[in-house]
From TrEMBL:
<feature type="transmembrane region" description="Helical">
    <location>
        <begin position="71"/>
        <end position="89"/>
    </location>
</feature>
<feature type="transmembrane region" description="Helical">
    <location>
        <begin position="6"/>
        <end position="26"/>
    </location>
</feature>
<keyword id="KW-0472">Membrane</keyword>
<feature type="transmembrane region" description="Helical">
    <location>
        <begin position="96"/>
        <end position="114"/>
    </location>
</feature>
<feature type="transmembrane region" description="Helical">
    <location>
        <begin position="46"/>
        <end position="65"/>
    </location>
</feature>
<dbReference type="Pfam" id="PF11804">
    <property type="entry name" value="DUF3325"/>
</dbReference>
<keyword id="KW-1133">Transmembrane helix</keyword>
<keyword id="KW-0812">Transmembrane</keyword>
<protein>
    <submittedName>
        <fullName>DUF3325 domain-containing protein</fullName>
    </submittedName>
</protein>
<dbReference type="InterPro" id="IPR021762">
    <property type="entry name" value="DUF3325"/>
</dbReference>
Length: 115
């Protein structure tokens, strides 16, 4: 696999997982998945984790491309990461939660391959 392909997959995976955590921090979506509203601590943890994953998605973009192009591609990966959530969350909310939980460590592992 090429360097840019690994960076693209890692950025897209981190963007998806981060957006999924931010979505699941909302009362409505949390209720859909777990059948109850989140506590303040859970909501804060999901919001912080989602923001951290979105920020980490910038690293592979800047590592594979320059800073200026990397930031633009990062914004594109954020948009592409939320698109599956638009279709998956209303129809399969538990699958959304599980896919985000499985995809986040895989995407973080992809960061190890970057220089």
């Amino acid at each position: 696999m090429t360097h840019t392909l690994i960076a693209s997959a890692a950025a897209l995976g981190l963007a998806y997982a981060g957006m999924a955590l931010l979505c699941l921090a909302l009362d409505r979506h949390h209720q859909q998945v777990w059948g109850r509203e989140p506590s303040r601590r859970q909501r804060a943890a999901m919001q912080g984790g989602g923001a951290l994953l979105l920020a980490l998605a910038l690293l592979p973009c800047v590592a594979a491309w320059s800073a200026t192009v990397g930031v633009v591609l990062w914004l594109g990966f954020l948009s592409a990461g939320v698109l599956p959530l638009v279709f998956l969350l209303p129809y399969a909310p538990r699958a959304t939660a599980w896919s985000a939980l499985l995809l986040a460590p895989a995407a973080l592992g992809g960061l190890m391959w970057l220089p």
